[in-house]
Amino acid sequence: MHVGRIRDLGLDVIQDSSDHANIIGLPDVNDDPVTAERLAGLLAKQSRIIDM
Distance between CA atoms of 37 and 19, rounded to whole angstroms? Predict the structure, then answer.
């Protein structure tokens, strides 16, 4: 996933190790289920499997 495209959604990315990062800023599904589902779908469309 590209950090810039994630940030375009109003989210942020924080690297926690050399090969992993966390997406932050996602709403709790219990607080805002419509936005949470929309963002989940948009993130799923951006994701790609990388064979290592």
Answer: 26
Residue type, 27: P
What's the whole-model pTM score? 0.79
Q: Sign (positive/negative) of CA torsion 13, 47, 20, 26?
A: positive
Show the tokens assigned to 9.
């959604």
Q: E-assigned strands of the chain?
A: 12-17, 20-24
Dihedral sign (CA 14, 18, 19, 20): negative
The tens digit of pLDDT for each residue in 25-38 reads: 999 999 999 999 99
Kindly state the DSSP code that residue 52 receives in the 8-state scheme: -
Query: Which runs of E-coded beta strand occur in 1-42?
Result: 12-17, 20-24
